[in-house]
Amino acid sequence: MASTNQEIFKKISDFLQEHDKITLATVSKEGLPVAHTVSHVNDGPVVYFTTLSHTRKIANIQFNPNIAYAIDDQSEDIKNVRGIQMQGKAEIIKNQGEMDKVLGLINSKFPSLPRSVDTPNLVVVKITPVKGMFLDNTIEVGYRKNVEF
Question: Which domains, ranges and CATH numbers included, belong to the chain?
Answer without folding.
Answer: 5-139 (2.30.110.10)
